[in-house]
Amino acid sequence: MKIPATVITGFLGAGKTTLIRHLLGNADGARLALIINEFGDLGIDKELIIGCGFEDCDDSRVIELANGCICCTVADDFLPTIEALLDRPDPPDHIIIEASGLALPKPLVKAFNWPEVRSRVTVDGVVAVIDAPAVRAGLFASDVSAVQDARESDPMLDHDKPLAEVFEDQLMCADMVLLNKSDLLDAGDLESVRADLVRSVQAGVKVVVTRHGAIDARVVLGIGAAAEDHIDTRPSHHDGDDDHDHDDFESFVVELACVDDPQSLHDSIAHVVKTFDVLRTKGFVEVTGKDMRHVVQAVGPRIERYYDRPWGQGEDRRSALVVIGETGLDRAAIERTLKG
């Protein structure tokens, strides 16, 4: 019997990690294995999941592939990782793959047709997590005129075509779409976004409204799509491409000293986002006089900060942020701003 795998995709900051934490807490005894693909060097998502507070959530259940999208490195990293999971004496009941927010899902699903794994694992479903307020703002709409109107009215929405194509590829490959952060929209706007998404996905794909990634795990982990069997029927902007590198995007780590004033750092991040069109900023910082680790997560102009757990005994209290944006970021200027 094949082990099911679920691919969780979605643009930067849509709530993929939050969804996974919810699934871990509601697995009903199932053994879940997680493969986390980070775009960036710090491994933030892995740390957020390990720090979730669940007793059975540890390094043995989290395998991380850093520095690049899974679809770029399937031969070198992804397939050996899948094989290692399958060869364990206690193989998982279900594999969850959190794809990078910049990854194209179709090449990843195709990898499950490789002879090494095809007879042993199946893609139960591709789940796209969508940021409802972002879609409502027209960030990645297929209507070019609407995108242009948004660009003219708000310079923060000035993102060019590659981002829209990634977003649309994730939708077109999905077996289920989770319209997340629904609590940030009123009922009318939410229904408008949902209706637009229904028209954008393939026939029969369900669009489910969620908040904070909360959904019955049996719904997400029991689609039964066997997506690898008919992946060629799912359209993509990148069909026919010889490769799938993502040179449109770059990331780097900014090392910081111990932070005296988290609000000042907050303001610096906001300035960087507005001035340099940064897509995503995330990391951990040490705050002077505090024994707890301070988490920073920013998606465009939306910045969240909170203390998640005490620093561990002997743990390196490293203060660092991953900065992600389209190629051409002024790294030196961004580092100067964040370091104050």
Account of the 3D structure:
The chain is of the alpha/beta class and 340 residues long. The chain folds into 2 domains: 3-233, P-loop containing nucleotide triphosphate hydrolases (Rossmann fold); 249-339, CobW-like, C-terminal domain (Hypothetical Protein Yjia, Chain: A,domain 2, 2-Layer Sandwich), CATH 3.30.1220. The chain contains 12 helices and 12 strands. The strands form 2 sheets. Strands 3-2-4-1-5-6-7 form a 7-stranded parallel sheet, with helices on both faces. Helix 11 (262-276) packs antiparallel against helix 12. It is globular and about 55 Å long.
Highlighted features:
340 residues, Hypothetical Protein Yjia, Chain: A,domain 2, alpha/beta, seven-stranded parallel beta sheet, 12 helices, Rossmann fold
Layout of secondary structure:
Elements: E1 3-9, H1 16-25, E2 32-37, H2 44-50, E3 62-65, H3 74-86, E4 94-98, H4 105-110, H5 115-118, E5 121-131, H6 132-136, H7 144-153, H8 161-172, E6 176-180, H9 187-200, E7 206-209, H10 217-220, E8 249-256, H11 262-276, E9 280-285, E10 292-299, E11 302-310, E12 319-326, H12 331-339
Parallel strand pairs: 1-4, 1-5, 2-3, 2-4, 5-6, 6-7
Antiparallel strand pairs: 8-12, 9-10, 9-12, 10-11
**CATH 2nd-level architecture of the largest domain:** 3-Layer(aba) Sandwich
What spatial order of strands do you see in the largest sheet?
3-2-4-1-5-6-7
Structural class: alpha/beta
CATH superfamily of the largest domain: P-loop containing nucleotide triphosphate hydrolases
Over all CA atoms, what is the radius of gyration?
20 Å
Alpha-carbon distance between the termini?
A: 56 Å
Strand % is 15-25%
The H-and-E topology, N to C, reads as EHEHEHEHHEHHHEHEHEHEEEEH
> What's the level 1 CATH class of the largest domain?
Alpha Beta
Average pLDDT over all residues: 80
Number of helices: 12
Helix content: 25-40%
**What can be said about the biggest beta sheet?**
7 strands, parallel
